Amino acid sequence: MFEQSSAPNTFVFDMDGTLLNEHHELSPLTMSVLNDLRERGHRLVIATGRHYKDIRAYLTQLGGGIAAITCNGAMIHNAEGELIQRVCLPLAANETLLPLGEAAGVHLNMYTDAEWLVNAPCESMLDAHAESQFFYRQIPLQEMLTTPALKILFYGENANLQQLKTQIENALPLPIHLTFSDEYYLEAMPQHISKDDALKTLAMQLDFSLANSMAFGDGFNDVELFDAVTHPVVMSNASEKLKTLFPHAHHALPHTEDGVARFLFEHVLQAQ
Predict the structure, then answer these.
(1) Is 127 an active-site residue?
(2) Most buried residue, 74, 81, 100, 126, by most Cβ within 10 Å?
């Protein structure tokens, strides 16, 4: 697919539904292909809604040396693990978002610098974090209202989340960015914070170009990221709505079939 001269030199990966399989693990094939890419001199970047502490185990499995955009862009770490950006929501946002979420009957979550906080337990949310051992701590809602957050997450049925999104958008103007990472997660980040903005900040800080770059993703929090790179690759397990937004994008097999690794092996590694 790509000639040697046109092959991407920067590769950006979402995690859940993309790089990780259905067990939220890095498969042996995925680890092998990504290590092969890096050994050939390509730049690898993780771009995820997860917290940085939640992906460190994966970065270690991949041998380190990978930059990370986490909390959908609210935190950026370079390949050495040094923090180069951190942006919190204004506390005023908590006072609007959290009561609306509670009234909507969805689970309230927030990521701080060091923790994942909730106001009520939700066992079904924990499965995805067994590998990383990054689990929530429950605190009262009143304490959440006064806690600075990198992002606030609402977890629940899509119909409830869609209603909540409309209510938030109709509330007093807030300096926030709302996005769905999948149909069950509505996420609120600081204004102008996204994977796209974070990738551009990372490129500027580390002095590399996005003129020949590729990104893999499956969620609506990847839309801006796809717009920022030369070659967007939509996972086959993504929603039809997302695929429609990028009719000319490449497609990879589902994450359950090592779609990222197989696409890279066939279209990038074998071509070099």
Answers:
(1) no
(2) 74
Sheet containing 75-77: give its strands across: 83-86, 75-77, 67-70, 43-47, 10-13, 213-217, 231-235, 250-252
- Out of 14, 54, 196, 218, the active site residue is 14
Amino acid at 264: L
| Token representation of residue 61 | 């499995």
Cα–Cα distance measured from residue 11 to residue 215, given in angstroms and rounded to the nearest whole number: 6
pLDDT of residue 1: 60
Spelled out in words, what is the top-level CATH class assigned to the domain 91-190? alpha beta
> What percentage of the chain reaches a pLDDT higher than 70?
97
| Closest-CA residue to 164 (of 105, 81, 124, 236) | 105
pTM of full prediction above 0.85: yes
141: its two tokens: 């809602």
For residue range 161-195, list pLDDT tens digits in order.
999 999 999 987 888 999 999 899 999 999 999 99
Structure tokens at 225: 């990221």
